[in-house]
Amino acid sequence: MWRHRQQGPGLDTTRVVVAVFENHTGDASLEALGKLAAESISEGLSRTGVVEAVPSSTVFGLSRLGAATAADEDPVQRLAEVTGAGLVVSGAYYAQGDEIQVHATITDAVAGNATTVAAVRGPRSSPHEVVEAMRRRILGGIAVRFDRSLLGTVGATPDYRAYQEYLAGEEFRGVDNTKA
After folding, report:
1. pLDDT tens-digit series, residues 90-116
2. Cα gap 156→137, rounded to integer Å
3. Which residue has the higher pLDDT, 16 or 68?
4. Cα angle at 45 between 105 and 58, to 5 degrees?
5. C-alpha dist (Å) from residue 52 to 11, 40, 172
6. DSSP symbols for the chain
7. pTM recorded for the entire structure
8. How far apart are CA 23 and CA 33, in angstroms?
């Protein structure tokens, strides 16, 4: 579970960078899905107002410039250091028959720990829907991380829509229990 840590040298714990998701499908026609995932998740994080998201264009520029890491260097930690982000979202996607499966991790680069986001799977014919489902899980996981009222009480990363419904219910708790 997440613990709030003081920011390390140059790393801001409220700044998040999303790496391009790695294509492990063996299908070059699905290569663009990695950038789509990074862009979609970054944009969603920006909209939450909970964290500052490093623009995906910055991440794409780094990969074009060959910001490769040494063989013994952790690429997630390196991405955090280059962008000043205390949190790094990374992931990969796989093809299994007619399905695509997306895996993701949220890494706290300051504390040096990581939370695995529950994998999402869906039809290979609708990869955008699979990415959207993962986006909602990641947004939920990051939002919950900064919600002090839930600190230590949530085990899995919730869907962001479910988290928003929870917040809406909390506003009415004790005031209008029917709405809550």
Report:
1. 999 999 999 999 999 999 999 989 989
2. 9
3. 16
4. 85
5. 12, 14, 29
6. --------TT-EEEEEEEPPPEE-SS-GGGTHHHHHHHHHHHHHHHHHSSSEEPPHHHHHHHHHTT-PPPTTS-HHHHHHHHHTEEEEEEEEEEEETTEEEEEEEEEETTTTEEEEEEEEEEETT-HHHHHHHHHHHHHHHHHHHT-GGGTTT--SPPPHHHHHHHHHHHHHTTT-TTT-
7. 0.77
8. 8
